[in-house]
Amino acid sequence: MGKILVIDDEKSIRRALKEILEFEDFEVDEAEDGKQGLDKATSQYYDLIFCDIKMPKMDGMEVLAALQTEKVDSPVIMISGHGNIETAVEAIKLGAFDFIEKPLDLNRILVTIRNASDKSNLVEEKKALKKTVQRFKGSSIIGETDGIIKIKEMIEKVGPSEARVLVTGENGTGKELVARSLHDNSPRKDEAFIEVNCAAIPAELIESELFGHEKGAFTSAVKQKKGKFELAKNGTLFLDEIGDMSASAQAKVLRALQENVIQRVGGEKNIKVNPRIVAATNKNLRKEIDEGNFREDLYHRLSVILIHVPTLNEREEDIPLLAEHFLTMTCAEHGIPRKKFTEDALEALKNTNWSGNIRELRNIIERMVILCDHEITGFDVNTFSNPRA
């Protein structure tokens, strides 16, 4: 269920907590003083830390303060046989999740563990949500052309299922937005949405990013790290640019999809995972398979459902809708009074060659909102963009 560190100089307390926690299926690590506990807590990840207050070498308050300085995310529960209200308040102010007095009460311990676990899940989800909100702020799948209507209908049908989806299309067409919409229309919508850009991560680090690593697995692995498969938990894992994944990582992803089990880099323990997989690529994976760059068995695992996102040039009639959307959003983000397009500006946008697709359209509109006067004209559009030949 998770890994817990118990820091206490009393062997009997460590033994009692270890027995209780192991009975609840937790993996338990021990430290006999504050210094040893701090070293362990900063070198690997723990789901929860129990820390005594009165200890040699380094007392619990000093450990707690050091954990905050080192930005250790694990919830810390302070325990003491000499507790009082002032001590408890000080511990909470320093960042402790809770304070429990000795002798330890079994029910209190289990309730506190459950509450701390709930908080940790909320923190992870909040972090993922903040990133998502920044990327998708004010966004939805906008458009009324046949291709976009078909995508919306497909999301409505496929979203509630557990089917894996492969989204294809050129860079900047909105594949990530399709993945997010699938997640938002699924039973997993309240769980995490985790993204991995397989093209942006060096081949030698992709396995650590996906599956995590143990301390000492490689030179820079100074502490244990959970991978994206674990962080996605029961949510959605979006594997962007899957066509750029190394052969070794492809083999491990295939195993994870077949068995719902992973192993961290440098580890031997099997870890159960259950995220829904949505993958995306701008490559022709059939061609990549023929050239020996992509595993055919992995392709079939990923492509239960195929969704192709058209280029912006293929959905010319959607450009005015998208332009107005990005205009409104950009003015709000920059605190600029609402501007407007002239009719010839909208026509010029439709006649532009959007090689960078929606991403390019958004960037150019942001540029014009900042640099142009109250109206954005056709001349402005032609100045900042690339008209079609």
TrEMBL record:
Domain of life: Bacteria
Molecular function GO terms recorded: ATP binding
Limits of the Response regulatory domain: 3-117
Alphabetical UniProt keywords: ATP-binding, Nucleotide-binding, Phosphoprotein, Transcription, Transcription regulation, Two-component regulatory system
GO biological process: phosphorelay signal transduction system; regulation of DNA-templated transcription
Domain Sigma-54 factor interaction: 141-370
Cited SUPFAM superfamilies: CheY-like, P-loop containing nucleoside triphosphate hydrolases
4-aspartylphosphate, modified sites: 52
Ranges that cross the membrane: none
Short name of any one Pfam family annotated for the protein: AAA_lid_14
InterPro entries hit by this protein: AAA+_ATPase, AAA_lid_NorR, CheY-like_superfamily, P-loop_NTPase, Sig_transdc_resp-reg_receiver, Sigma_54_int
Name of the molecule in the record: Response regulator
Organism: Brumimicrobium oceani
